[in-house]
Specification:
- With 82 residues, this protein is mainly β.
- Helix content is 0%, strand content 16%.
- The protein has no helices and 5 strands.
- The radius of gyration is 12 Å and the shape is globular.
Length: 82
């Protein structure tokens, strides 16, 4: 099981197109965890234990991402996520 995605966990992974981290028990994502995934089009984080997301967590994926799956996570949506 993966519990935490550290900053720059995907360093030197520029050519990855799909990342499937579903049902991995992830509860914590560092704010720069996905910074080097410049070509990823699909990111699956469904079925984890993610409660909070840094507002810039997906910033580096803006130009390539087509789908992010966050289903079945206990994400706390409140004013701090604005």
């Amino acid at each position: 099981d993966i519990l935490h995605i550290h900053s720059y966990a995907f360093n030197h992974s520029e050519h990855i197109g799909t990342v499937d981290l579903s049902s991995s028990m992830i509860s914590n994502l560092d704010s720069h965890a996905f910074d080097h995934l410049s070509n990823v089009s699909r990111l699956d984080l469904s079925g984890n234990l993610i409660r909070f997301l840094d507002k810039s967590i997906f910033q580096q994926l803006i130009h390539s991402i087509k789908q992010i799956d966050l289903d079945n996570n206990p994400i706390q949506c409140d004013c701090s996520m604005e």
